[in-house]
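Hi V.,

Quick status before I head out on leave. The structure for the redesign project is tokenized and pasted below; the design run finished overnight.
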């Protein structure tokens, strides 16, 4: 793939965190795009994606993308001053 500075992926971050009262989301801006709600559970976090594009058919790729989104969420939350 050739780097295109005008492409969507070149102009926006891969992930963003969004929130509304009582809800938190991880937004994936690169294809395949999705908005995933984060659920805090006693044994960690889980995310439930709502796909904007067709999700990966390959289960390994899908699992890797969900893991990457979860890791991003954890890293961002740990950087927040009030989470310490």
């Amino acid at each position: 793939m050739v780097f295109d500075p005008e492409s969507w992926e070149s102009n926006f971050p891969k992930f963003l965190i969004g929130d509304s009262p009582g809800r938190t989301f991880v937004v994936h801006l690169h294809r395949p795009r999705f908005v995933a709600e984060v659920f805090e559970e006693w044994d960690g976090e889980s995310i439930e994606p709502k796909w904007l594009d067709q999700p990966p058919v390959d289960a390994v790729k899908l699992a890797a993308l969900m893991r990457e989104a979860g890791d991003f969420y954890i890293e961002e939350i740990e950087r927040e001053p009030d989470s310490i």
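Above is the designed sequence. The beta strands are 15-20, 23-28, 34-41, 44-51.

G. will cover questions while I'm gone.

Best,
W.
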